[in-house]
Write a structure and sequence with these properties.
329 residues, two-stranded antiparallel ribbon, 36% helix
């Protein structure tokens, strides 16, 4: 029986990487598990997983993805392409003195984790995907797809494409914007069916926050948690985070040689039943027998929204550690 590891036992480190530097937070000893966050978050999104994985006998490492937190923020928009983020992850594993790692990602981190496993199976021996399903590279150009969505409304990914446009909405009141964005995709605070969808904006003069729910924070997010997230983005601004969205067409071109490619390593998927990522990408989940032939654990959590490891930490920790333990056999 493992003794619980206190969450205060966290080690902050900075390593050299293609990004310049990467900030990470580490806890525990054992097989390496790399945790990759999504938008608009930071290493802190894994605060409830780090001690649980350490207690279970793993070396858990959560990083700030380039452009976020205390990691480097290159100025060039194309410095945030998927190939560069993958190389950051490889460099991180090497800098930690390891040859292999299990990689687990949430939201954009799920896509980054999947690409890392696809491009470097010799490094990433297994992959866990939270909230955003794996869809192999290929298909039509992403921005063309997004431009056709929403009819007289604009899809949020299209809204994020023009440098400076979304920043002008977010940065004057970052704390308020983040609170609304988190609430809009949390099970207990998201808009009810029939209310305006917060994934879209009016094409003329619209803002995402016009559709955010007002009132209380979601149950998983304390005022102190919100202060941590807001404090990081107050220092960094939002451009580094948004530049991930601005490279989707470059990624489409860069990853064309991998069109339709499955991820062969052992894999895990956990989605929220109320998360748009799960419902919009239901076809990708249905295709897992072909696209994730190594899938050994797949779960849809009833009544759960997008911020899955924060909304349901105990359940996610149990599923994650059980899957990780199965890899050691």
């Amino acid at each position: 029986m493992h003794q619980p590891v206190p969450s205060a036992d966290l080690r902050h480190r900075t390593i050299e990487a293609p990004a310049g530097r990467l900030h990470l937070v580490e806890q525990g000893t054992g097989p390496l598990v790399l945790l990759v966050h999504g938008f608009p978050e930071s290493w802190y999104s894994w605060r409830r997983q780090l001690p649980a994985l350490a207690t279970a006998g793993y070396r858990a490492v959560a990083l700030d993805v380039r452009g976020y937190g205390r990691s480097s923020k290159p100025a060039a928009t194309d410095a945030y392409r998927m190939l560069d983020l993958v190389e950051d992850n490889v460099a991180l594993v090497r800098a930690l003195g390891e040859e292999k790692a299990v990689i687990v990602g949430h939201d954009w981190g799920s896509s980054i984790a999947a690409a890392s496993a696809l491009l470097h199976p010799e490094v990433f021996r297994a992959v866990g995907l939270l909230s955003v399903p794996y869809a192999p590279p290929g298909g039509p150009r992403p921005t063309d797809v997004f431009a056709q969505m929403g009819g007289d409304q604009e899809f949020y990914v299209s809204y994020f494409q023009e440098p400076g446009r979304a920043e002008a909405e977010m940065e004057p009141d970052l704390r308020g914007w983040l609170a609304g964005f988190y609430a809009a995709m949390s099970a207990d605070t998201m808009p009810t069916p029939g209310e305006p969808d917060p994934h879209f904006v009016a094409r003329t003069g619209g803002r995402l926050r016009d559709r955010f729910p007002g009132g209380s924070l979601p149950a998983w997010l304390t005022e102190d948690d919100l202060d941590v997230y807001a404090g990081e983005f107050e220092r960094t601004g939002m451009t580094g985070a948004l530049n991930r969205y601005r490279n989707m067409d470059r990624d489409w071109e860069d990853l064309a040689p991998y069109g339709g490619a499955p991820i062969e390593q052992p894999s895990l998927f956990i989605g929220g039943a109320l998360d748009a990522s799960t419902t919009w990408m239901a076809d990708a989940i249905d295709a897992y027998p072909a696209t994730l032939p190594g899938l050994t654990s797949s779960h849809i959590l009833d009544g759960c929204g997008h911020w899955i490891q924060q909304e349901r930490p105990e359940e996610v920790n149990r599923l994650l550690t059980s899957w990780l333990d199965s890899l050691q056999g």
